[in-house]
């Protein structure tokens, strides 16, 4: 299999930036902690030929089947596991890996998942109110929509969707229960708040909030970030792609904190935290180009941040 390099002009710029940041080499070891259908994994494995290895994690069994087929040509250099990235260190240990040279976290819902109506992620197509990445987990979006008290539901919409009309939408959902499909929920939201003054569909933030709550995405991200740094060799890199401000803010704050020796309050005269920096920030923020967004409108909200593990003093 020929090595295509990271400067293929036919690949999206963001994809090229990921490979440039990771700079895969042979015989390096890498983790794609959200492997999806294997697009980034293919590029990493291609670049770290002939003997680099990659561990790909995903909770979605359908995505893993697609990745297995797509990456089959790499043979034993690719290891795929159905697992959440919160178990990244456990999965490494099961392989006998002590450390890795790079970790990629491509967060949020993929285009492939959005296009699968049965997953219930999209308000544009009829589907069940599911929204689970992992079909084995017990709680669905329908459970939240149909059983939560209105106060708790409004809190989810505000906390995870930053939806200004959270209370109105929660009350409307309560008045129209039970709701079983994506389009039913979207229609209730449309009738309640309309689209005036909004640059996006009125159901967008509610669907985002429910998806984040169902999958506990922010809690999982908080857990995996320090584990990903722990997994890296000195000089190894963590690359994170986020798709909404809550994720990006969490990643930004984590990087800023771990890039400092002291995290005491600013006005505290003497450091008592004993915190030592573990990373340097390689790239604070990369946004997709206009042409990239034209080619793939879903990429418009993508944000890329890169950190490199340093040698601890």
The amount of helix comes to: 40-55%
Q: Describe the main β-sheet briefly.
A: 7 strands, mixed
Number of strands: 7
Mean pLDDT: 91
CATH architecture of the largest domain: 3-Layer(aba) Sandwich
Q: From N to C, what is the helix and strand string?
A: HEHEHEHEHHHHHHHEHEHE
- Under CATH, the homologous superfamily of the largest domain reads Vaccinia Virus protein VP39
Number of domains: 2
Radius of gyration: 21 Å
* Count of alpha and pi helical runs: 13
Highest-level CATH class of the largest domain: Alpha Beta
Give an account of the 3D structure.
The protein is an alpha/beta fold and 313 residues long. It has two domains: 13-112 and 217-309, 3-Layer(aba) Sandwich (Rossmann fold); 122-215, DNA polymerase, domain 1 (Orthogonal Bundle). Helix content is 42%, strand content 15%. The protein contains 13 helices and seven strands. The chain has a seven-stranded mixed beta sheet with strand order 3-2-1-4-5-7-6, with helices on both faces. The radius of gyration is 21 Å and the shape is globular. The N and C termini lie far apart (41 Å). The model is unreliable at 1-9 (pLDDT under 50).
Outline:
This protein is an alpha/beta fold and 313 residues long. Helices cover 42% and strands 15% of the residues. The chain has a 7-stranded mixed sheet, sandwiched between helices.
